[in-house]
Amino acid sequence: MKKNGFTTTIVHADRRAHSEFGAVHAPLHPSSEYAFADSRDLTAVFQGRPGFTYARQGTPTTAALENKITQMEEGIGTVSFATGMAALTAIFFTLLKAGDHLISSHHIFGNTNSLLATLAGLGVEVSFVDATDVANVAAALRPETRMVFTESLANPGTQIADLKAIGDWCSEHGVAYVVDGTLTTPLLCRGKDVGASLIFNSLSKHIGGHGNALGGAVTDTGLYDWSKYPNIAEPYRKGKPASWGLTQIKKKGLRDMGGTLSSDAAHRIAVGAETLALRMERICANALGLAQYLAEHARVVKVHYPGLASHPQHERAAALFQQRYGGLMGIELAADVDVFEFLNRLQVLALATHLGDNRTLVLPVAHTIYYEMGPQRRAEMGISDNFLRVSIGIEDFEDLRADFEQALT
Ligand SMILES: *Cc1c(COP(=O)(O)O)cnc(C)c1O
Asked: In degrees rounded to 5, what are phi and psi of residue 358?
């Protein structure tokens, strides 16, 4: 049978996985524990057979969502978490140990930056590099380098790492390659297409889309040979090496660390995920139109949006993301615009953090998500006090354009 498209696959995923009574949504399972008629079955699941024991390690509802994410990424398996940060914590803290070296893009989400500082405090060496050029990653290589981390499209600066070249380089050097694909989603860029070993998605953003549930997911693309990875603990070096990495992330990240996604949130995210492609098409079109409009505006100094020819990685984005550039943009207002006055005048845009929502959201970056970093690191990252992060939603384009116009005038 011909392979179905993205949305067809997702909207029929539960039914095709044989849900009870032909239900088109996998049922919501609130059970904390799962009982067995035969004691041998109970012990078999504890010893690795697929199944459910205690909800900290997942439920049929979280498994149904994981199945959808795996299909979106065309990967080999997914583990879900309570939030994106719980998933990132699981990746870094279960796969790295003191003395290991991690190379990270320096254009990353503020909370991830802070998480990596915690990791460094525990003895993992972290080098931050400009990952828009693979040469900078290559120059940071050490014998202890275990992992390279980058965002596909950086929040909030919109830099685009040299994704494919880094993937090739990691594969040549046997280094695990972790990509945070939150801003591009599997619709614009699949992890395996850029050679990622693991692709991370915050489900709280575009995939859920409705601003009503938090979640995160790690998907194994199947490209990395975990038998070459020195930090897989003995009990997880069983069966096909392709599954070792995710098994360790699941056992240590869910069972031991406990950052588990609830069935209730998983269900809401799964419903949202059905319309990901429709929402992204609208979001990308709205965002490109607004970026073009704002780039010409006299009171705007610069618009950072990969869909504009002025963006330093515009060509790369066009090639990798099939001419769709996502919903996030950075806007630097002219120095004589009072950023707080401007924000207070907005009527349609919501003044809120978060991104990838149905609603357009705006936030002054230096005073909020990058506040803790201090002025020096902000300057290094090119974040001025008049820098706004805007996450474009699905509203009617003309309402968004008019709102910017009235607030800027
Ligand atoms: C929001 C975000 C995260 C964290 O996800 P949460 O679900 O909010 O914990 C990680 N990376 C990027 C790029 C994000 O935008």
From this structure: -65, -30
Percent of the chain that is helix, strand, coil (3-state, to 5): 45, 15, 40
- What is the span of the domain harbouring residue 204? 6-273
Pairing type for strands 361-364 and 350-351 reads: parallel
Apex 278 CA angle, 273 and 284, nearest 5 = 110
Q: CA quadruple 172, 178, 183, 188: dihedral positive or negative?
A: positive
Q: Report the candidate in 251, 163, 328 with the shortest Cα–Cα distance to residue 180.
A: 163
pTM (two decimals): 0.96
**Residue to mutate, 108, 202, 353, ligand 1, most ligand atoms under 8 Å from C-beta:** 202
Domain boundary among 249, 273, 297: 273
What CATH number corresponds to the domain at position 286?
3.90.1150.10
Pocket of ligand 1 (CB under 6 A): 83-85, 109, 112, 151, 155, 180, 182-183, 202, 204-205, 214, 216, 355
Q: What is the pLDDT of residues 141-181, one digit of tens each?
A: 999 999 999 999 998 889 999 999 999 999 999 999 999 99
Tell me, in angstroms, the distance from the centre of ligand 1 to residue 45's CA: 32
